[in-house]
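Researcher: We're reviewing a set of sequences before deciding which ones to prioritize for further study. For each one, I'd like a predicted 3D structure that I can look through quickly. This is Tetraspanin. If possible, include the structure in C-alpha coordinate form so it fits the rest of the review sheet.
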Amino acid sequence: MGSLTVKEVLCVLYSVLLFVSGIVLISLSAILAIKLFNQFKFVPSGSVGPFIVIFILGFIHLFLTWLGVKGPSREHDFHIYMFMILTLILLCGEFAIGVWSMVLRGQVENESGKLLTESFDEMIKIDYNKKEWVRLQIDLKCCGLHGSQDYAIKDSYPKACTDYQVSNGTFQVLYENGCNKALVKHVKKIMLYGALLGFLSSLYQAVGLFIFYLFVKELKNVRSKRIARRLQMDREAAAAVHPPGPQSSPPPVSTSQ
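Model: Here's the predicted structure for Tetraspanin, in C-alpha coordinate form for your review sheet.
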Protein backbone atom coordinates (compact mmCIF):
# COMPACT_ATOMS: atom_id res chain seq x y z
CA MET A 1 0.00 0.00 0.00
CA GLY A 2 2.93 2.30 0.73
CA SER A 3 4.25 1.81 -2.78
CA LEU A 4 0.84 2.71 -4.21
CA THR A 5 0.78 5.91 -2.15
CA VAL A 6 4.23 6.90 -3.44
CA LYS A 7 3.16 6.35 -7.05
CA GLU A 8 -0.04 8.30 -6.42
CA VAL A 9 2.01 11.23 -5.12
CA LEU A 10 4.21 11.04 -8.24
CA CYS A 11 1.12 11.10 -10.46
CA VAL A 12 -0.30 14.14 -8.68
CA LEU A 13 3.07 15.91 -8.76
CA TYR A 14 3.41 15.18 -12.47
CA SER A 15 -0.10 16.55 -13.06
CA VAL A 16 0.66 19.76 -11.19
CA LEU A 17 3.81 20.24 -13.27
CA LEU A 18 1.70 19.48 -16.34
CA PHE A 19 -0.42 22.51 -15.43
CA VAL A 20 2.74 24.61 -15.20
CA SER A 21 3.92 23.27 -18.56
CA GLY A 22 0.59 24.30 -20.08
CA ILE A 23 1.08 27.87 -18.88
CA VAL A 24 4.63 27.83 -20.25
CA LEU A 25 3.50 26.52 -23.65
CA ILE A 26 0.73 29.10 -23.93
CA SER A 27 3.04 31.96 -22.95
CA LEU A 28 6.07 31.00 -25.04
CA SER A 29 4.06 30.09 -28.14
CA ALA A 30 2.27 33.44 -27.98
CA ILE A 31 5.55 35.35 -27.59
CA LEU A 32 7.24 33.50 -30.46
CA ALA A 33 4.19 33.87 -32.69
CA ILE A 34 4.12 37.62 -32.04
CA LYS A 35 7.79 37.84 -33.04
CA LEU A 36 6.91 36.18 -36.34
CA PHE A 37 3.87 38.39 -36.86
CA ASN A 38 6.04 41.49 -36.42
CA GLN A 39 7.87 40.50 -39.61
CA PHE A 40 5.02 38.53 -41.17
CA LYS A 41 5.40 40.37 -44.47
CA PHE A 42 8.76 38.66 -44.97
CA VAL A 43 8.13 35.32 -43.27
CA PRO A 44 6.53 32.25 -44.91
CA SER A 45 2.90 32.14 -43.81
CA GLY A 46 3.14 28.53 -42.66
CA SER A 47 5.87 29.32 -40.14
CA VAL A 48 3.37 30.47 -37.54
CA GLY A 49 1.38 27.21 -37.75
CA PRO A 50 3.35 25.20 -35.16
CA PHE A 51 3.00 27.97 -32.58
CA ILE A 52 -0.77 28.18 -33.04
CA VAL A 53 -1.03 24.43 -32.46
CA ILE A 54 1.29 24.60 -29.43
CA PHE A 55 -0.88 27.40 -28.03
CA ILE A 56 -3.98 25.18 -28.31
CA LEU A 57 -2.19 22.16 -26.84
CA GLY A 58 -1.23 24.29 -23.84
CA PHE A 59 -4.91 24.49 -22.88
CA ILE A 60 -5.20 20.72 -23.24
CA HIS A 61 -2.36 20.45 -20.71
CA LEU A 62 -4.50 22.47 -18.30
CA PHE A 63 -7.50 20.19 -18.83
CA LEU A 64 -5.41 17.06 -18.38
CA THR A 65 -4.29 18.30 -14.99
CA TRP A 66 -7.81 17.72 -13.67
CA LEU A 67 -7.87 14.15 -14.93
CA GLY A 68 -4.35 13.50 -13.67
CA VAL A 69 -5.21 14.60 -10.14
CA LYS A 70 -8.69 13.13 -9.86
CA GLY A 71 -7.94 9.71 -11.36
CA PRO A 72 -5.17 8.44 -9.06
CA SER A 73 -6.46 10.15 -5.91
CA ARG A 74 -9.88 8.48 -6.24
CA GLU A 75 -8.71 5.40 -8.12
CA HIS A 76 -11.16 6.09 -10.96
CA ASP A 77 -10.29 3.80 -13.86
CA PHE A 78 -12.12 5.95 -16.42
CA HIS A 79 -10.19 9.12 -15.56
CA ILE A 80 -6.88 7.27 -15.36
CA TYR A 81 -7.20 5.57 -18.74
CA MET A 82 -8.65 8.70 -20.36
CA PHE A 83 -5.64 10.62 -19.06
CA MET A 84 -3.22 8.05 -20.49
CA ILE A 85 -4.95 8.01 -23.90
CA LEU A 86 -4.94 11.81 -24.18
CA THR A 87 -1.34 11.93 -22.99
CA LEU A 88 -0.34 9.47 -25.71
CA ILE A 89 -2.11 11.63 -28.30
CA LEU A 90 -0.32 14.70 -26.96
CA LEU A 91 3.01 12.89 -27.10
CA CYS A 92 2.57 12.06 -30.77
CA GLY A 93 1.20 15.51 -31.61
CA GLU A 94 3.94 17.44 -29.86
CA PHE A 95 6.66 15.28 -31.38
CA ALA A 96 5.09 15.94 -34.79
CA ILE A 97 5.18 19.67 -34.06
CA GLY A 98 8.89 19.40 -33.37
CA VAL A 99 9.46 17.68 -36.71
CA TRP A 100 7.17 20.18 -38.47
CA SER A 101 9.11 23.12 -37.03
CA MET A 102 12.41 21.67 -38.17
CA VAL A 103 11.07 21.13 -41.70
CA LEU A 104 9.83 24.73 -41.85
CA ARG A 105 13.17 25.91 -40.47
CA GLY A 106 14.91 24.34 -43.43
CA GLN A 107 12.66 26.24 -45.85
CA VAL A 108 13.13 29.67 -44.31
CA GLU A 109 16.24 30.69 -46.22
CA ASN A 110 14.75 30.21 -49.69
CA GLU A 111 11.22 31.42 -49.02
CA SER A 112 12.12 34.45 -46.89
CA GLY A 113 14.83 35.36 -49.41
CA LYS A 114 12.27 35.52 -52.20
CA LEU A 115 9.82 37.58 -50.13
CA LEU A 116 12.54 40.01 -49.08
CA THR A 117 13.91 40.44 -52.59
CA GLU A 118 10.50 41.15 -54.11
CA SER A 119 9.56 43.54 -51.32
CA PHE A 120 12.86 45.42 -51.43
CA ASP A 121 12.65 45.91 -55.20
CA GLU A 122 9.14 47.35 -54.79
CA MET A 123 10.30 49.66 -52.02
CA ILE A 124 13.23 51.00 -54.08
CA LYS A 125 11.08 51.58 -57.15
CA ILE A 126 7.76 52.83 -55.74
CA ASP A 127 8.36 53.17 -51.96
CA TYR A 128 5.99 50.26 -51.32
CA ASN A 129 6.38 48.37 -48.01
CA LYS A 130 8.49 51.24 -46.69
CA LYS A 131 6.96 51.09 -43.21
CA GLU A 132 7.61 47.35 -42.94
CA TRP A 133 11.23 47.80 -43.98
CA VAL A 134 11.75 50.56 -41.43
CA ARG A 135 10.49 48.26 -38.66
CA LEU A 136 12.54 45.33 -39.98
CA GLN A 137 15.78 47.34 -40.07
CA ILE A 138 15.24 48.80 -36.60
CA ASP A 139 14.26 45.49 -34.99
CA LEU A 140 17.04 43.39 -36.53
CA LYS A 141 19.68 46.16 -36.71
CA CYS A 142 20.29 45.60 -40.41
CA CYS A 143 20.38 47.70 -43.57
CA GLY A 144 19.09 46.92 -47.03
CA LEU A 145 18.77 43.49 -48.52
CA HIS A 146 22.46 42.52 -48.46
CA GLY A 147 23.93 45.65 -46.92
CA SER A 148 23.86 49.46 -47.05
CA GLN A 149 25.18 49.38 -50.63
CA ASP A 150 21.69 48.39 -51.75
CA TYR A 151 20.64 52.03 -51.17
CA ALA A 152 23.38 53.40 -53.44
CA ILE A 153 20.76 54.01 -56.13
CA LYS A 154 19.17 56.61 -53.86
CA ASP A 155 20.60 59.91 -52.72
CA SER A 156 20.47 59.08 -48.99
CA TYR A 157 20.24 56.23 -46.56
CA PRO A 158 17.16 55.69 -44.39
CA LYS A 159 17.43 56.65 -40.73
CA ALA A 160 16.41 53.08 -39.81
CA CYS A 161 19.85 51.95 -41.04
CA THR A 162 21.66 54.18 -38.58
CA ASP A 163 23.57 52.59 -35.73
CA TYR A 164 22.91 55.22 -33.05
CA GLN A 165 25.25 53.56 -30.57
CA VAL A 166 28.29 54.71 -32.56
CA SER A 167 26.81 57.55 -34.62
CA ASN A 168 26.80 61.20 -33.53
CA GLY A 169 25.69 64.51 -34.91
CA THR A 170 28.59 64.82 -37.36
CA PHE A 171 28.58 61.46 -39.08
CA GLN A 172 26.19 58.59 -39.69
CA VAL A 173 27.31 55.01 -39.11
CA LEU A 174 25.17 52.40 -40.84
CA TYR A 175 24.48 48.82 -39.88
CA GLU A 176 26.80 46.54 -41.80
CA ASN A 177 24.61 43.45 -41.95
CA GLY A 178 22.01 43.03 -44.65
CA CYS A 179 18.47 42.15 -43.61
CA ASN A 180 18.41 38.95 -45.65
CA LYS A 181 20.87 37.11 -43.42
CA ALA A 182 19.59 38.81 -40.27
CA LEU A 183 15.98 37.81 -40.90
CA VAL A 184 16.84 34.23 -41.86
CA LYS A 185 18.90 33.87 -38.68
CA HIS A 186 16.10 35.42 -36.62
CA VAL A 187 13.35 33.19 -38.02
CA LYS A 188 15.49 30.05 -37.84
CA LYS A 189 16.12 30.70 -34.17
CA ILE A 190 12.38 31.07 -33.54
CA MET A 191 11.60 27.86 -35.43
CA LEU A 192 14.30 26.06 -33.44
CA TYR A 193 12.62 27.21 -30.23
CA GLY A 194 9.34 25.86 -31.59
CA ALA A 195 10.95 22.49 -32.31
CA LEU A 196 12.45 22.37 -28.81
CA LEU A 197 9.05 23.12 -27.30
CA GLY A 198 7.54 20.23 -29.23
CA PHE A 199 10.29 17.71 -28.50
CA LEU A 200 10.65 18.59 -24.81
CA SER A 201 6.87 18.50 -24.31
CA SER A 202 6.63 15.08 -25.95
CA LEU A 203 9.45 13.84 -23.72
CA TYR A 204 7.57 15.09 -20.67
CA GLN A 205 4.43 13.26 -21.85
CA ALA A 206 6.48 10.05 -22.14
CA VAL A 207 7.60 10.45 -18.52
CA GLY A 208 3.98 10.94 -17.48
CA LEU A 209 2.84 7.84 -19.32
CA PHE A 210 5.52 5.79 -17.58
CA ILE A 211 4.54 7.11 -14.14
CA PHE A 212 0.85 6.39 -14.71
CA TYR A 213 1.68 2.93 -16.07
CA LEU A 214 3.52 2.14 -12.85
CA PHE A 215 0.56 3.42 -10.84
CA VAL A 216 -1.95 1.31 -12.79
CA LYS A 217 0.22 -1.77 -12.41
CA GLU A 218 0.56 -1.24 -8.65
CA LEU A 219 -3.15 -0.47 -8.34
CA LYS A 220 -4.05 -3.82 -9.93
CA ASN A 221 -1.79 -5.62 -7.47
CA VAL A 222 -3.32 -3.79 -4.51
CA ARG A 223 -6.84 -4.51 -5.71
CA SER A 224 -6.02 -8.21 -6.08
CA LYS A 225 -4.75 -8.27 -2.51
CA ARG A 226 -7.84 -6.40 -1.31
CA ILE A 227 -10.12 -8.94 -2.98
CA ALA A 228 -8.18 -11.88 -1.53
CA ARG A 229 -8.28 -10.29 1.93
CA ARG A 230 -12.03 -9.64 1.64
CA LEU A 231 -12.72 -13.21 0.61
CA GLN A 232 -10.66 -14.48 3.54
CA MET A 233 -12.59 -12.24 5.93
CA ASP A 234 -15.91 -13.45 4.48
CA ARG A 235 -14.89 -17.06 4.98
CA GLU A 236 -13.82 -16.37 8.55
CA ALA A 237 -17.08 -14.52 9.25
CA ALA A 238 -19.13 -17.36 7.79
CA ALA A 239 -17.21 -19.88 9.88
CA ALA A 240 -17.89 -17.83 13.03
CA VAL A 241 -21.64 -17.66 12.37
CA HIS A 242 -22.05 -21.31 11.39
CA PRO A 243 -19.42 -23.28 13.28
CA PRO A 244 -19.13 -26.92 12.25
CA GLY A 245 -21.05 -29.32 14.60
CA PRO A 246 -19.44 -32.24 16.49
CA GLN A 247 -18.93 -35.26 14.33
CA SER A 248 -21.04 -38.28 15.43
CA SER A 249 -19.38 -41.69 15.60
CA PRO A 250 -20.74 -44.36 13.28
CA PRO A 251 -23.13 -46.92 14.86
CA PRO A 252 -21.57 -50.24 15.94
CA VAL A 253 -21.88 -53.07 13.53
CA SER A 254 -23.35 -56.22 15.02
CA THR A 255 -22.07 -59.59 13.94
CA SER A 256 -24.28 -62.69 14.07
CA GLN A 257 -22.81 -66.01 15.15
